[in-house]
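Sat 14:20. Reprocessing the chain from the morning session after the first attempt stalled halfway. Input below, unchanged.
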Amino acid sequence: MEISLVLSDTCGYHEETKEILKQAMEEAGVEADVAVTVIHQDEEAITVNCIASPTIRIDGLDIEYQEREPEERSAGQRYFNTPSGWKPYPEVGMIVRALDAAKQRDSGA
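Finished this time. Tokens:
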């Protein structure tokens, strides 16, 4: 399983996002290296396929949008639509669901 995290140097919540990702991986029973990339401008966001910061991808799919992600790319701050309202980082459950979906795809189920 490939997990990537793209962060912008201009946006906060880096440590919170890393901790939430770690918690989600533990909860989902996933052990994998996380490729972390820090970007500085919108041109880099396009190159690394970053919707906005933070962008977490599992096997190439964004944790929030999966196959139906928007075309926009930005080094700006991202907000996630959570049950608690809009937040500048995802909730653990969102990542766990994406990890579980990736495990199902990997198993062919």
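The first strand starts at residue 3 and ends at 8.
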